[in-house]
Amino acid sequence: MKTYQELSKEELLALKAELEKAYEEEKGKGLKLDMSRGKPSVAQLDMVMDIFDVLNSDSDMISMEGVDVRNYGVLDGLMEAKHMMADMMEVPADHVIIYGNASLNIMYDAVSSAMTHGVMGGTPWGKLDRVKFLCPVPGYDRHFSITEYFGIEMIPVPMTPEGPDMDMVESLVEQDDSIKGIWCVPKYSNPQGYTYSDETVRRFARLKPAAGDFRIFWDNAYAVHHLYDETEQQDKVLEILSECEKAGNPDMVYEFASTSKVSFSGAGVAAIASSKRNLDCIRKTLTIQTIGYDKINQLRHVRYFKNFDGIKAHMRKHAALMRPKFETVLRALERELAGTGIGQWTNPRGGYFISFESMEGCAKAIVAKCREAGVTLTGAGATYPYGKDPRDSNIRIAPTYPTPEELAMATELFVLCVKLVSVEKLLEQMG
Amino acid sequence: MKTYQELSKEELLALKAELEKAYEEEKGKGLKLDMSRGKPSVAQLDMVMDIFDVLNSDSDMISMEGVDVRNYGVLDGLMEAKHMMADMMEVPADHVIIYGNASLNIMYDAVSSAMTHGVMGGTPWGKLDRVKFLCPVPGYDRHFSITEYFGIEMIPVPMTPEGPDMDMVESLVEQDDSIKGIWCVPKYSNPQGYTYSDETVRRFARLKPAAGDFRIFWDNAYAVHHLYDETEQQDKVLEILSECEKAGNPDMVYEFASTSKVSFSGAGVAAIASSKRNLDCIRKTLTIQTIGYDKINQLRHVRYFKNFDGIKAHMRKHAALMRPKFETVLRALERELAGTGIGQWTNPRGGYFISFESMEGCAKAIVAKCREAGVTLTGAGATYPYGKDPRDSNIRIAPTYPTPEELAMATELFVLCVKLVSVEKLLEQMG
């Protein structure tokens, strides 16, 4: 089989005509599907509806520490919620603070308070001439939005299947004291589904940052979001807090996690894990910022899942739903695009995304073509700081929300758009 | 009856001996009561337990606009929640954004984002040499904590039974462009239970601030927290948004409200009301800050209360519980302290507090004496910026949390401590 690059102009023109016809047919189907974000499916949400039976009008509303969760009090989370989330993050419970419904909000608050009040007594970042963050790319658009919003300069660092390019991370972080942070999704990364190797985590832990207030923003969003049940088919990440402690950098990490993709998106429980010194500073801010987070929802979650084992059992049910979806997409990509030279993709074992690399300069056009035919993908470029993918090639595929049938149709359309745009690009290059 | 000031030294010494004996007896009772914050009582919380039966595993989780509340989406609140909270604030629903579980957090975010990003395109407050807030005193300590935290200079403005001293407010706000805000609790103010008069509200609305980004922080925390059911016994506040609009100042107010003292403290629904232009700016920040607030809890609240009428009906049940508590305190104060010249207090018709004014220089000692005998009151000074009551005379009494029996004992102790400390002060003054 020839790659598309090996086709003659005539062959390309013939192929184009054929693809255009198929595309018009696709458009006629009146598809209307939003695959722009990594959303749980209705079936996943239905699976957790029992959580609403956990609390009723007769329920005991007293926490294990004797707190009436319906009233004011308890700034940093119920002890039972700390235990559950700590186990998820593989850290001790006293290294955890429970927040509200969204870990993104914790990250925003962490950056915002660093801007106005500094990190652990350091100069407020807002008083500095330049503040920079490293951004492994492709990455999560909402991370980049936060740093962009605060005027923080973002430096892209290429991702590899082992994690960010650590030679580059080390050399930048250790030389430039205006680099204050790095955005990381260490497990089943967004969008590639890559998991940081042990060596990567150890190199992170051993960093000697020029800035004393440098922090790793460790967004462990997919800690338990495996696609496969067998342990050997599940990715693992070295626990970063203890690695940092061992390396003499105990305060260098903020780790974030939530049940947004375990229970409900936007109505789960979010948490931060960090050193006690960091947490003490965070608590001081919390005292000003809030009267406390929703303890009733914390109690509801703990009474439902019981503990981390309960979460793991629940996530196996998610996996059973999600695995076929990922496989549907991957099979179609393999069948239609393997050997064509017009696309590469990742094969994640967990998380919420598949990352697709088109030929250079084709991603925006592919996404536009899909949208024209009724399928909205994440905007091309979104996976890069400032929304600018320098190669215009990365596309994030989010297979979780559609039904398997919808997903099969959407993937068929996607593959078609990849082919059509690639043919157009090749013809354009021929002049 | 003589006032304490009219007593001779011998009379005071005799009284002191008698009071000291009584105080020792009180200490012996082993009271242990925390009245430091305005907390709903257990009975109030029990009244709303049915809210947990509203959602169960079979519930329809789709909002009136067709949104699955269990998934991502909807940044600024469910339409039905907007309607309910808008009615509470007497504004149109499109002037409302629903947040998370605490209005304090909205206020913090409003100040924080003004510091880093300015108000509606203005210079970030953090870039200015001086930023000042007016603080009606006595007032709410957590308001003052927010402005103190951000290094905002606080200028106390005396409260009157009609609201803040508006001559002073006008003259300061209209001359000094570094004054960017004022903290207001317009109805049943914290701690005095005063309600702003129509004239006060109109003078607020007609302000001509020197600073274009001056905002009134209108914390309508006790909008529906009446002690009496008859309309003529309930305080009313002119609706500030429309007054500001009429006066040509449509963007001058942020209004805050929540169900923290309607449903659950820390697990209710909070909201902001403001002009559409302000809300558009706030939404831009929210897009960065969060993936959205807890829509399930919003739905739970609306399905339970149905609408604002449901909230009003529920609050009449609160009133029935709270009225006797306020009356217990007020009766004891009247019986024991009227005509003594050693204390004055407010007679609120709603809200969560009674404000007590001791003789100058006695508040801290009274609070300390109460604590020594087992009753923790709000720290003296807390009702003033920086925790400094210049006269050391204001004490906030929070009668809502204790049972009626506990409250009777606590008030007895309080009155005793007021007498004892006053006698000591008068003797000290005699030398």
CATH domain fold name of the largest domain in chain A: Aspartate Aminotransferase, domain 2
Largest interface: A-B, 55 and 55 residues
Largest sheet of chain A: 8 strands, mixed
Assembly classification: homodimer
- Mean pLDDT of chain A, nearest integer? 97
Tally of separate helices of chain A: 14
Beta-strand proportion of chain A: 5-15%
Approximate helicity band of chain A: 40-55%
Task: Describe, in plain words, how this protein is organized in 3D.
Two copies of one chain form a homodimer. Chain A is of the alpha/beta class. In chain A, a hairpin with an 8-residue loop joins strand 10 and strand 11. Helix content of chain A is 42%, strand content 13%. The mean pLDDT of chain A is 97. Chain A folds into two domains: 4-44 and 313-430, Alpha-Beta Complex (Aspartate Aminotransferase, domain 1), CATH 3.90.1150; 63-305, Type I PLP-dependent aspartate aminotransferase-like (Major domain) (Aspartate Aminotransferase, domain 2, 3-Layer(aba) Sandwich). Chain A has an eight-stranded mixed beta sheet with strand order 2-9-8-7-6-3-4-5, sandwiched between helices. A three-stranded antiparallel beta sheet of chain A has the order 10-11-13, with helices on one face. Chain A has a two-stranded parallel sheet with strand order 1-12. Chains A and B meet through helix 3, helix 5, helix 6, helix 10 and helix 11 of A and helix 3, helix 5, helix 6, helix 10 and helix 11 of B.
